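Consider the following input, taken from an annotated entry for non-specific serine/threonine protein kinase (Plantactinospora soyae).
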Amino acid sequence: MKDDLLAGRYRPLRLIADTAHPGRVWLARDEVLGRHVAVKKVVVPERLSAAERSRLHDRTLGEVRGLAGIDNPGVVSMWDVLSADDHLWLVMEHVPARSLSDVIAANGPLTAAEVVRVGLHLLGALDVVHAAGVVHRDVRPRNVLLADDGRVVLGGFGLPIFDSGAPAAVAGRNLSTTQYIAPERAHDATSTPATDLWGLGATLYVAAEGRLPWARPTILATLAALATEPPDPMYAHILEPTVTGLLRRNPRQRLTTEEARSHLETLTVSTVATAPSAALSRTHGRWPVTATPTKRGTVYAPGSAPVTSGNDAGNTKVLTVAMPPARGRTGWAFAAAMLGLLAVGAVVVAAAGTLVAGLGDQTGETARTPAAAAAGPAETAEPAEPAQPAHPCLDDTAATEGEPVLPATSPPPQALPDGWLWHQDPNGFSIAVPADWTRSTNGKTVCFRDPDELRLIAVDPTAKAAATPQTRWQAEERELLRAGALPGYKKISIGPVIRPGGAAEWEYTWNHGDGQPLHALRLLGNQSPTRAYSLSWITPDSQWALNEPNQRLLSASFRLE
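Applying the prediction step yields:
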């Protein structure tokens, strides 16, 4: 874009968004009104005929007129539309903000309360957009703006207006972005308000988990999972009924905006404050979300008092959430549409290769192989006596020399369930643990154990940073197998997760000691270019599901000092 006045009025200052399809966004100055604006160049695909281009031009103007009538704090305001250089230009409100994808990449997944706040704002924005007769078609983290003034704003309008085909319309997108596209749109280009609710469900999933709802080691496996399987289980279990309700393949069975809002508003006054999530290194508490009426709409913001919930089952805190009805199975038509993308060419294949390699932009739009996608078992011969323990916290010294866990002396950063305490470790980290657990060390590893059964979490706050953390786990996997320390080993997954600085998880089972099957989930995260930390959660395989709430709370509470 040349440094000329656009339409004799708008002076471009700098490029602020370079989107591959189908336009770019500049920060510009409106020289008439003396204010900053965002101007977006909308590019019509060259493959279209003159008649198709004219028809889409008229359709775009119709949708822009609908957007121009919206005055809502959760929707980017549309101020002008003009033609120049044989292209349409949209002039919009400039919102100083970071995108949700950038926030996830920099800070990791959001807490449950934060996801609820974002979800309520987006539902309000979609309500007014749909009432104006506009379907967004591209709801995803990159188009959700977390504004400097505290607003959650839905942007990205004008980009999907020219999507006119079914599989061809999404062929230029990478494999991870495809997961935000509703099945009916991929199948036959159908776009309705329910289409946007699918994108909202995928967006909230990524915000809470730091990974995509479906991710597999190959492109074929990912597309097949998209077509036939439910979303991978969420660590933020309390949000799962809402998110999976939005991700039902049959649009007639998908949650409506009213139903989704009811789900989330129920959470704001019940269990969201202390619910575990995938968020790590949080320095603030989880508080209920309150609604505040404003001149332009309702703004949801964190409240000021903690709430508690949960039912005691022994020493295990169990969160109870009503599950939605079983989803419809309308996936095979979607499968045919999605698998048709394979014939489009190298773009999707290259994206899949990036996914498999665990590389990418780490913005909430790339993903890992999840725990739900178990790889084939790689069993080793079971030795009579392993040459080394499978984990430092499982050797005899760590198991017998535990001391009581001391509570932190500084004010706790957030409320905890009954029977838990905050521990400030002399090795430079803080963590929430059950009050009756013990602490021991083995080298640089700090071990927290249940004195009554084999449940433990291990922390190594001095791990070395790795450019690709998953390769570190792959190397340790090879070493432990070579040493015979993992008899009966079955790998569930090794892959990247979205955390500040980059991270990866390794999940697996093996037979310990007398043959008891154990289950481990291990996280390696980069704190800086030279420093990393590892968290390991180990429990009997038979008790894995029962103990997941504890694991999530332990992991979510951890932070380096």
